[in-house]
């Protein structure tokens, strides 16, 4: 997979017009986009069809988290859209993810069914307090990744800090999709567990999700090219392509 196929730009905008404006500006620089809750709801789903009409690949990030039947039905909806990847929350559990992976494979075997482990906006202290646990985020993410794999799903969303341990535990073909990616020149915003694009590739991230460093940049094309440049450096150093 080349650098361009690994960069997923998060289209977090309140209107479809703003999203279209950015996609036009970025042109051929970017070929994969993420449509999350904000864009999907504000565009009433139109963003997915718009992007696929341009030949762009779409990660539908609606992070389903509910009882098994409800999540499975929502996932079947996702798998029927023009998307190459969609996600649920691993915290929904084994039964939920098993029913999602089984049903989605019948409808669209090519759609990657992914589970979010520990959100990249969490720190270790927050997780310890919230879950009343002594386990670190890395331990939780690795455990949830194992449950995700055993449930027949294709991969996880995790921070780059957990990616190599997850690859070691779940195998190299188990996908790691990593937000919390920040070049040195970009602000962290609300992300806690961040890493540069180059280091993220070296740590085994398959896909890097990058939003604000590109979408809010004064020159988004230049920002995307800088991120792609770092991804290429990482791939060259890791000798993968
Ligand atoms: O599932 C996601 O995509 C996701 C999971 C996670 O743990 N952290 C996370 O930031 N994301 C998404 O990744 C994108 C990151 O955007 P920026 O922080 O602007 O680069 C946002 O659209 C988030 O919704």
From TrEMBL:
Its EC number is 4.1.1.23. Pathway: Pyrimidine metabolism; UMP biosynthesis via de novo pathway; UMP from orotate: step 2/2. It catalyses: orotidine 5'-phosphate + H(+) = UMP + CO2. SMART domains: OMPdecase. The active site is at 61 (for ompdecase activity), 63 (for ompdecase activity), 63 (proton donor), 66 (for ompdecase activity). Substrate binds at residues 12, 34, 61-70, 120, 182, 191, 211-212. Homodimer. This is Orotidine 5'-phosphate decarboxylase. It comes from Ilyobacter polytropus (strain ATCC 51220 / DSM 2926 / LMG 16218 / CuHBu1). The lineage of its organism: Bacteria, Fusobacteriati, Fusobacteriota, Fusobacteriia, Fusobacteriales.
């Amino acid at each position: 997979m080349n650098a361009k196929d690994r960069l997923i730009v998060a289209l977090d905008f309140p209107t479809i017009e703003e999203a279209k404006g950015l996609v036009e500006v970025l042109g051929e620089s970017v070929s994969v986009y993420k449509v999350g809750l904000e864009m999907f709801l504000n565009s009433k789903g139109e963003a997915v069809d718009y992007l696929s009409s341009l030949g762009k690949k779409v990660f539908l990030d609606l992070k389903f988290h509910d009882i098994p039947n409800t999540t499975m039905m929502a996932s079947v909806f996702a798998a029927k859209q023009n998307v190459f990847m969609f996600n649920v929350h691993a915290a929904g559990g084994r039964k939920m993810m098993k029913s999602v992976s089984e049903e989605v494979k019948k409808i669209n075997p090519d759609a990657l069914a992914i589970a979010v482990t520990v959100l990249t906006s969490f720190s270790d202290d927050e997780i310890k307090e919230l879950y009343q646990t002594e386990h670190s985020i890395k331990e939780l993410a690795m455990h949830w990744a194992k449950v995700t794999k055993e449930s027949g799903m294709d991969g996880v969303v995790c921070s780059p800090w957990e990616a190599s341990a997850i690859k070691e535990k779940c195998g190299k073909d188990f996908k790691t999709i990593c937000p919390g990616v920040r070049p040195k020149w970009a602000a962290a915003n609300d992300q806690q567990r961040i890493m540069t694009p180059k280091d993220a590739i070296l740590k085994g991230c398959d896909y890097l999700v990058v939003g604000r460093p590109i979408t809010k940049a004064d020159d988004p094309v230049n920002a995307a090219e800088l991120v792609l440049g770092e991804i290429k450096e990482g791939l060259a150093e890791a000798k993968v392509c």
